[in-house]
Amino acid sequence: MKKASRHLLRSLPGHVAFVLSMLVGATAMDTAAFSYFYEGWGQGAVNAAAYMIPPVLVVAACAVATRWPRTGGLACLGGGLAAGLWWLWRQAAAGGLSLVVVQTAVVFFAPFLAIGALFLLEARHRRLLAAEGVLPASGWWRRHHRPVLVVAVPVLAVLLGPARQLPDLLARHDDGRRGVRTIAGNGVTLTWAPQGPGWNQLQPDGTYPSWNAIASYGGDGAGLCGHLDEDGSSLVAAAVRSWRLPTPTEVIGSLTRGGANAGCAWDGRSDHAACARPPDKETPLWAPDQPPIYYLTSEAAGENFVLGVNYTGGITWLRRLPASRGVGYRCVKAATPR
Predict the structure, then answer these.
(1) Where are the domains of the chain?
(2) Which of 67, 82, 91, 308 has CB 3.0 to 4.6 Å from 318, enough for a Cys bridge?
(3) Distance (Å) of CA 83 to CA 24, 225, 253
(4) How far apart are alpha carbons 314 and 184 in whole angstroms?
């Protein structure tokens, strides 16, 4: 009886690691798939791999650890620590390191580190069992059910969650045009800048300009949009002031679905616009093959935040800094009467 109690206590870390492996794997796969569908859809196989390879490695390491706990546990510890430090380094390099960022890193990476430590305790338990002459479980399922479930549960989570968005994504409207567009929206008609300096122009580091960078461009108060030439194709030294950043209401009123206006309106208080039908990341307002899911607007709050609108009609406060791949911009001007 005493030996059975000792075995139960020693085996507890392995049971907890197994359950955590399924939960962390499912969460990682779901989060990555949702992020890919939300931000990265239509940007090629390399981009898809950048989203999906990390969670696949997480699931693989956990599956290995259930079979060979010492090897897998060390892989989880080393991989989790390296990934966490790399992510923090990226945030620091972009000027976005803060207490909130560190807390986010703990939430993201601490569970994976805990899994690694628990599997090392499970490896010790199995060594002691072998020294005591306890034979491994007989039967294929009893010996392999843990790695099978650690892989199957995340796959099932993706099939039941983000994969259900595939029909809408495959039907997303994209007319391929990236030039100047005049959009007659819900109560607003505006001309939107063409692809180039006035619309989601990438910086050398692969991000899009921050709100502060856009607002301070030129040093004369006109901002980047104010320095666009009349046709929006290039920046000029002297401020023209034909173009500007849109207001939240203007972005929301211009959202579309299936090539037609989505009928969205905002009451100025809610965190999501009310729409006649759900809008999507489609032309003519959005470029479906670009990463940004938010557009910056002209409405700022204090020194640190500005209102952003995403392609579903969601409204949120975004930081003015740092630059990001998920937050873009598009300059507008009054539509010329025909």
Answers:
(1) 2-170, 181-334
(2) 308
(3) 15, 38, 41
(4) 20
Contact between residue 180 and residue 53 where contact means Cβ atoms under 8 Å apart: no
Whether the model pTM is above 0.90: no
pLDDT band for position 189 (50/70/90)? very high
CB 225 within 8 A of CB 236: no
Q: How much is the average pLDDT of 129-153?
A: 89
* Continuous segment of H or E residues that includes residue 309: strand 305-310
CB 42 within 8 A of CB 176: no
Cβ pair 73, 65 in contact under 8 A:
yes
- Alpha helices by DSSP H, listed for the chain, are 2-35, 45-67, 69-93, 99-131, 140-160, 166-170, 211-216, 223-226, 248-253
* Residue in this structure with the two tokens 């392609």, named with its chain if needed: 311
Convert the pLDDT of each residue in 297-311 to its tens digit: 999 988 899 999 999
Query: Which of these, 245, 199, 215, lies nearest to 320 by C-alpha position?
Result: 215
pLDDT in tens, 31-88: 999 989 888 888 888 889 999 999 999 999 999 999 999 999 999 999 999 999 998 9
What is the CA angle 250-323-219, rounded to 5? 75
State both tokens at 24: 């962390």
Alpha carbons 70 and 64: distance in angstroms, whole number: 9
3-state secondary structure of 287: coil
Contact 115, 79 (CB under 8 A): no
87 token code pair: 């992510």
Beta bridge partners of 164: none
Mean pLDDT on 238-247: 97
Closest among 232, 208, 227, 205 to 216, alpha carbons compared: 227
- The closest of 319, 317, 300, 320 to 309, measured between CA atoms, is 317
pLDDT above 60 for 113: yes
Residue 258: CA count within 13 A, CB half-sphere: 6
pLDDT averaged over the chain? 92
**Residue 1: pLDDT band with limits 50, 70, 90:** very low
